[in-house]
Amino acid sequence: MGGSVANPVVLFLGFLALGIVSAVIFDRSRRPGTDPGRRRVYGILWVLVLLVGGPLWLVVAAMLGVL
Predict the structure, then answer these.
(1) pTM to 2 decimal places
(2) Structurally, how many domains does the chain consist of?
(3) How far is Cα 63 from Cα 26, in angstroms, rounded to an integer?
C-alpha cells in the first residue's frame, strides 16, 4: 500500500529537479554584467532543459519502474 504513494512522489520530484535546474540557468542569464554570447547560451540551455529534460525524465522513470 505504501509503494503506490511513493511512485507519483518520485515522478514529481524528478520534474521538480528539472524545474529548479532550469530556473537556476535562467537566473544566470539575467544577471547584470553577463555578456550577450553567454546570455544567449544560457537562454538556449534553460529551454532545452525543459523541452528535453521532461520527456527524458519520463523515459528514465519508466526504465526505473516509477511509472
Answers:
(1) 0.81
(2) 1
(3) 29
